Amino acid sequence: MIQLKNTVLFQIVMALVVSLFLSCESNFKQVQMINYSEFVPASDADSIEVKYTDSGRISGVMKSPKMLDYANVAFPFTDFPKGIDVTLYDKKGKRTFIVANYAISYKKTGIIDLQGKVKITSETGQQLETEQLFFDQKNEWFYTERKFKLTDKAKGVSFGQGIDFSKDFKIVNSQRISGELEAEE
Length: 185
Hints:
Number of helices: 2
CATH topology: lipopolysaccharide transport protein A fold
CATH superfamily: Lipopolysaccharide (LPS) transport protein A like domain
Order of helices and strands: HHEEEEEEEEEEEE
Strand order of the largest sheet: 2-3-6-7-5-4
Largest sheet: 6 strands, antiparallel, barrel
Helix content: 10-25%
CATH architecture: Sandwich
CATH class: Mainly Beta
Number of domains: 1
Shape: elongated
């Protein structure tokens, strides 16, 4: 009789334990969402054209089919997922044209990362092609460690890996170059 009572008591306790486990609702997803912050842009624009000015004169014009501005994150940046088309003007009005399939501009550092079939052409006929190029806006300086092709109507075509140059192509420092170039003496 005592054993029968123990068996019945055991079955009742097990039924309660099983019903407790089955009745508990899983809130694991809610717990995960506590520290979740959605990564969405602060602003989103289509077909933009931005004109940059310096002391009343236009220093650049940028066009892009899509812009996503992430000004609301710890390290703010602007993303151009469908590419950009930029025209830079020097103080004498000479232009430099930049085209890239993708770009991202970091606000705190002033660095623009251009990617995917990047092509820069000066008004004097110099052209640089590469897959990734960085532009330091403060110093108006381009640089990359990627392979590049530099075409100069006066000096020929060169290939290499690693280059940095001023936005007007007046100063060019290239590494590991090959090709036919005419050197000034």
